[in-house]
Amino acid sequence: MKTESTAYSYATYKAFLAIESGEYKEKVLFVDLNRDRLNALSLTDYARVMNAYAEALFELGKFAAHIEVADELIEMAIIHDVRYIGAKDLYEETLFQKAASLYNLEKLEEAIYILRELLRINPNHDSAGPFLINCYMRERAPTLQITRKLSIIIILLSACIIAFELFVVRTRYPEMTSGVELTRNMLFLFGTGILIVGELIVRYVAVAEVHRFTKR
């Protein structure tokens, strides 16, 4: 009976591998319907299936479900030493994808924590650093909102001055045209400058923080 069960599990495994790489809905449905048989697979084959299942969940935007499967994969990598799936480092890449799911669920603190842990493990990870910068920038979104709103107000004010210039100054007070033009140009440049400088400062602070962390 055990041999027959193993044969069924392996046939199920081969059927899963036959699903096209981009058919994410089919992969998720297949695993959900055949979990009992897949549980009887060898550890490596089971990890390969669950890794593909996790990827499918992520691509379908099922981030909460993805996190649950990611935790299972991380546990397998740690406890059972299932470290690589092909050329992929299962532990590191699952950590990264879990951080991405947390990010999409607006759980920035948890995403930042995982990315920092990943950088502790591998300071040269290609994607963790840039992604951590993005998380820090998103975390500071309220600051950016202030500078953006202030910039929009100033630019709108310059637009109002343009309308005032066209309909009032140029027709009734032409001698004031150059002064009004200078004022609205300065306001426009100032508003644009606030927008650009605000974005640059927030990004610079985020990059500097990640740089300090990885250097440390």
Derived from helix and strand composition plus strand pairing, the structural class reads mainly alpha
**How many beta strands in the DSSP annotation?**
2
Number of helices: 10
The main β sheet shows up as: 2 strands, antiparallel
Share of β-strand residues: under 5%
Mean pLDDT across residues: 89
The helix-strand sequence is: HHHHHEEHHHHH
Tell me, what is the CATH class of the largest domain? Mainly Alpha
Instruction: Tell the overall outline.
Output: elongated
**Under CATH, the topology of the largest domain is which?**
Serine Threonine Protein Phosphatase 5, Tetratricopeptide repeat
CATH homology superfamily name of the largest domain: Tetratricopeptide repeat domain
Residues in helices, as a percent range: over 70%
Second-tier CATH architecture of the largest domain = Alpha Horseshoe
Write a concise keyword list for the protein shown above:
216 residues, mainly alpha, Serine Threonine Protein Phosphatase 5, Tetratricopeptide repeat, 2 domains, two-stranded antiparallel ribbon, 10 helices, 81% helix
